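Inverse folding, one chain.
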């Protein structure tokens, strides 16, 4: 083997070694605690890296002058392909209801299909996200939570798509003394398959989370049917003069 080939081989091996070492260091890193990464326009965006987990979780905390029913309605009402595209744009290409809204468990199950393109190309297979949305309210504090978790085995997998298995998101609404609410939005989900996590970890995650809640979400919530929504399973403290919120 010539000197040039040997040098190229050693160089390649060294580069691979550095990449693998860096990946191992990154994988082992993390405090498991939320760390503030962006504070702008009344919206605080945090990240959390857990040791031995590659993907970073993201969190946004901010206040809104909305009722809790208003926020819940936006998440549990009107599931459809059009609604999915209003939330996520044209990357949402399919929708299928799996289990309709159940008034006992306060939950439903739906499948959304996404086409995550890169550089304008269809590089990845379609992603199927089956999610179960469940609403709960603490009877003492009136804090209301919509937990959005993956239900990947609700129906058999399809050959056309990659089934996303890691989905653990939540929206928590805490009533405030002035009649508004604090919104605490957490998202911990990957894109499945070989989708590169670093795209979310080092760019789109923080900026994308901030842009979503500051721009797209405001447009979605500016809907009369959400503004006037009321649910008998959600108590709104500001409507009850006998209830004080600390």
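Residues assigned per position:
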């Amino acid at each position: 083997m010539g000197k040039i080939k040997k040098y190229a081989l050693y160089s390649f091996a060294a580069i691979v070694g550095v990449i693998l070492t860096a990946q191992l260091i990154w994988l082992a890193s993390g405090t498991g605690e939320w760390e503030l990464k962006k504070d702008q326009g009344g919206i605080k965006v945090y990240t959390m890296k857990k040791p031995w987990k590659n993907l970073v979780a993201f969190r946004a905390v901010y206040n809104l002058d909305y009722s809790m029913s208003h926020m819940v309605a936006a998440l549990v009402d009107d599931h459809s392909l059009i609604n999915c595209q209003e939330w996520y744009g044209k990357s949402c290409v399919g929708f299928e209801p799996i289990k309709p809204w159940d008034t006992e468990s306060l939950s439903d199950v739906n499948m959304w299909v996404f086409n995550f393109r890169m550089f304008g190309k269809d590089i990845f297979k379609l992603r199927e996200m089956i999610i179960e949305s469940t609403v709960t309210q603490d009877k003492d504090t009136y804090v209301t939570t919509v937990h959005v978790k993956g239900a990947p085995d609700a129906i058999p997998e399809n050959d056309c798509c990659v089934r996303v298995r890691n989905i653990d998101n939540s929206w928590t609404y805490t009533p405030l003394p002035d009649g508004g609410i604090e919104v605490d939005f957490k998202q911990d989900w990957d894109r499945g398959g070989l989708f590169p996590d670093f795209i979310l970890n080092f760019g789109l995650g923080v900026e994308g989370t901030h842009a979503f809640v500051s721009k797209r979400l405001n447009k979605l919530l500016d809907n009369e049917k959400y503004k006037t929504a009321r649910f008998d399973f959600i108590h709104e403290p500001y409507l009850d003069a006998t209830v004080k919120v600390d």
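The chain has a mean pLDDT of 85. The chain has two domains: 1-30, 31-239.
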